[in-house]
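Internal ticket - ligand job 299, zinc ion:
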Amino acid sequence: MPELPEVTTTVNGLNEVLSKLTIKDVWSDYFLRTKNKRKDTIKNKKYFEKFKNEIVGEKFKNAERRGKNVLIHLSGNKTILIHMKMTGHLLYGKYVWENNSWTSKEEFLSDPFNKFVHLIFTLSNGKHLAFSDMRKFAKVIIFETDKRHDVIDLTGLGPEPIPDLSLDLFKNQILKKPAGKIKTVLMDQSIIAGIGNIYSDEILWAANVHPERISSSLNNKELKNMWKATKEILVSSIKMGGDSMSDYRNIYGQKGNFQNSHKAYRRAKENCLKKGCEGIITRKIIGGRSSHFCNIHQK
Ligand SMILES: [Zn+2]
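stdout (structure tokens):
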């Protein structure tokens, strides 16, 4: 699932290309091909019709990330919220409707992971903003920009870990779940926004903390190491264009590179890469999610 660095990479891309373009049309088949037709998302046909009416003719202003959500602000006091969930990612380029699907001949957009287009915006420059989502779990809604403080998808989010989350606030947030296992707490969006399975594994590996440690047992030094690792790892992944071990691609359809720097995530049975450590990376299900950690230096 795209986490903070991937969503940031997408948002930066949107800001490069969308500014001042107008939405000419929008198409989706989510409401035809999805089982869970939630009334308050575009997976419901009526909602999609309303969505279409509201956005066609509006101009892109800018895009923003909040937690793992992409917010696309339009003229007319309108904001589109996209949560990419497991396999969703936004793509920009020239598409054509061919053999009952949207396809692109552009080199990177024709990557097999980019072919599951279930939502597409036609833009005033003749190009498209497409949304590929193989598993169709994504959420797309619209709201009035000045009412963002009432949007439930945003109100429950904890603070952003970068750029300026203080050590004190980081500690306070973690200790809001004193009895929780730290891996689960780090991924809790109400505690700190934007961290998921990949980055929680990497942060705990770098901070020498075992994922099953109970929050309240962490000492100041461990919390400080986690705080530092959180910032460093997220920033470094953004510089690499995010993580494309799974489906994620940037808006041009290209892979990021963070998957080549994993120290823990999906390295089960491999040697630990920490200098002087002779541990082996172990995989264990913690809080319903697979966790990867070193059996020696993470305590
Ligand atoms: Zn180790």
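Auto-summary: The chain has a mean pLDDT of 96. The chain has two domains: 4-155, 167-294.
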